[in-house]
């Protein structure tokens, strides 16, 4: 199958799958998700994604999700095994079950719903720089939870697309937080600076890898707030994400940015891509 869908144990072609109208995800977006890249049949960093998924469930107090980690992993891999393609996006979500609409949780015996999709993913040419816009971050204080509620992200991303750009960078006042689907970092004076992993950003798994790799290479990393001015004046501005990988920006709001420490940027991007290659065999050009 090209695109595979799964719902509570049933697998089929994505276009033919159906979910109940009473699923909590339908009216409330009352659920959490995660998404990872599969290349050559290997899921890059599934364990980290599972950690974050179970943490999101805990933070949303979704107690009725039954599968334990091994069972969930089996369901994910069983579904993925049905899909065709060298590079795939593995997406899964759990909502608080199906029950007539009411704000309080459904009764305890109602089980959470598990939905999985596996779709082909065309990776972008990561040698090409991307264009960004800035958007005021009007999201709430739970951005560390990967919930289904992504309205501000969707609207910011559409704004970026309508401006002919690739991604929107959120800022709260003068402080840069993250992108609509990625984390944002800067290089400045040989240092990597990125927003701390608190409740204002999603703790990205690629961000985590990059910090680890940068530290391993002796690059000073600062997990602290940085301002819009710092970003516009940075040596490099870049975004990270599981299928976005690591990409540098050359304009923000139509102004030229970065391009002053390509060597360090390519070293970090290369270190990340080496790790991806070691784990999955995926070898795409970055230099
Ligand atoms: N920030 C947001 C808002 C995201 O939606 C994502 C990915 O979906 C990321 C950051 C990057 O996270 P990861 O590196 O785990 O893919």
N- to C-terminal separation? 34 Å
Global Rg: 19 Å
Report low-confidence residues grouped into runs of 5 or more: none
- Predict the CATH topology of the largest domain: D-amino Acid Aminotransferase, Chain A, domain 2
Helical content stands at 25-40%
> What is the CATH H-level superfamily of the largest domain?
D-amino Acid Aminotransferase, subunit A, domain 2
The CATH architecture assignment of the largest domain turns out to be Alpha-Beta Barrel
Sheet with the most strands, sense and barrel status? 10 strands, mixed
- Spell the H/E element sequence: EEHEEHHEEEHEEEEHEEHEEEH
Number of helices: 7
How much of the polypeptide forms β-strand, as a percent range?
Answer: 25-35%
Please report the total strand number as a whole number. 16
Shape: globular
Bound molecules: pyridoxal-5'-phosphate
What is the number of domains? 2
Average pLDDT score: 98
CATH class of the largest domain: Alpha Beta
Structural class: alpha+beta
């Amino acid at each position: 199958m090209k695109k595979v869908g799964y719902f509570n144990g049933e697998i089929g072609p994505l276009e033919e799958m159906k979910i109940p109208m009473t699923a909590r995800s339908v009216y409330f977006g009352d659920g959490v998700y995660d998404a990872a890249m599969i290349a050559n049949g290997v899921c890059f960093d599934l364990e980290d994604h599972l950690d974050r998924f179970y943490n999101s469930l805990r933070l949303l107090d979704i107690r009725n999700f039954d599968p334990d980690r091994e069972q969930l992993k089996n369901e994910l891999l069983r579904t993925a095994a049905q899909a065709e393609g060298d590079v795939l996006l593995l997406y899964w979500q759990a909502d608080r079950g199906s029950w007539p609409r009411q704000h309080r949780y459904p009764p305890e015996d109602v089980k959470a719903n598990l939905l999985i999709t596996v779709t082909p993913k065309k990776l972008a040419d990561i040698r090409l720089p991307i264009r960004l816009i800035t958007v005021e971050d009007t999201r709430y204080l739970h951005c560390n939870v990967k919930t289904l509620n992504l309205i501000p992200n969707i609207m910011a991303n559409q704004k970026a697309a309508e401006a002919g750009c690739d991604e929107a960078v959120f800022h709260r006042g003068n402080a840069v937080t993250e992108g609509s689907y990625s984390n944002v970092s800067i290089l400045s004076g040989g240092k990597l600076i990125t927003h701390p992993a608190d409740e204002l950003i999603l703790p990205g798994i690629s961000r985590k890898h990059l910090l680890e790799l940068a530290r391993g290479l002796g690059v000073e990393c600062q997990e602290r707030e940085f301002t819009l001015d710092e970003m516009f004046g940075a040596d490099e501005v870049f975004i990270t994400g599981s299928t976005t990988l690591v990409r540098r920006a050359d304009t923000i709001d139509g102004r030229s940015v970065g391009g002053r420490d390509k060597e360090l940027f390519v070293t970090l991007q290369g270190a990340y891509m080496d790790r991806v290659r070691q784990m999955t065999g995926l070898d795409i050009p970055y230099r």
